[in-house]
Amino acid sequence: MNTRSRSYDTDTIDSVLLGYIAGYSQRNISTITKIPRTTIREWIYDLKKGRIATPGSIEHAHYWVIEYSTEEVVEGICKICFQTRKFLNRIEDNNPWMTREEKEEGLWKNTLVK
Ligand SMILES: [Zn+2]
After folding, report:
1. Whole-angstrom Cα distance, residue 13 to residue 39?
2. What is the C-alpha to C-alpha distance for residues 98 and 104, in angstroms, rounded to an integer?
3. Ligand 1: distance of its center to the CA of 8 in Å?
4. Do the Cβ atoms of 90 and 84 come closer than 8 Å?
5. pTM for this model (two decimals)
6. Which of 4, 22, 98, 114 has CB atoms 3.0–4.6 Å from 102's, for a disulfide?
């Protein structure tokens, strides 16, 4: 591990590398994890050079990131392990008492497609 990466914990680095292994672009990983692309690029480089071990599984509760959409079924990406899962988009768009954030939060909490 080089010195530039030390401000992040192992799980964070593993998470980014899981995203890379799952086939996400550095730009996508950066958007999901909020980690700068230059840092992500360093970690991937170190992984290829064998300076970082291939990540195993990370113990966590999935944290689904779902883009706001009007589609009936939407895809969520876990920002920790980069698994994807489909969710039913049942939130009423015309409910004036819910903010957009509440609607998005409601999606991943309540409507997992079985
Ligand atoms: Zn996960």
Report:
1. 10
2. 10
3. 18
4. no
5. 0.68
6. 98
Neighbouring residues of the ion ligand 1, judged by CB less than 5 Å: 62, 78, 80-81
CA angle at residue 82 from 76 to 88, to 5 degrees?
Answer: 15
**How close is the Cα of 87 to the center of ligand 1, in Å?**
15
| Rg (alpha carbons) of the chain, rounded to whole number | 16
Helix residue spans in the chain (DSSP H): 10-21, 26-33, 37-48, 100-110
Ligand 1 centroid – CA 82 distance (Å): 6
Q: How far apart are CA 80 and CA 62, in angstroms?
A: 7
pLDDT 10s digits, 42-92: 999 999 999 999 998 889 999 998 887 888 888 899 999 999 999 887 655
Please tell me the distance between residue 4's alpha carbon and the centre of ligand 1 in angstroms. Answer: 26
Q: Report CA(2)–ligand 1 centroid distance (Å).
A: 26
For residue 68, what are the contacts with CB-CB under 8 A and spacing of at least 6?
Answer: 100, 103, 104
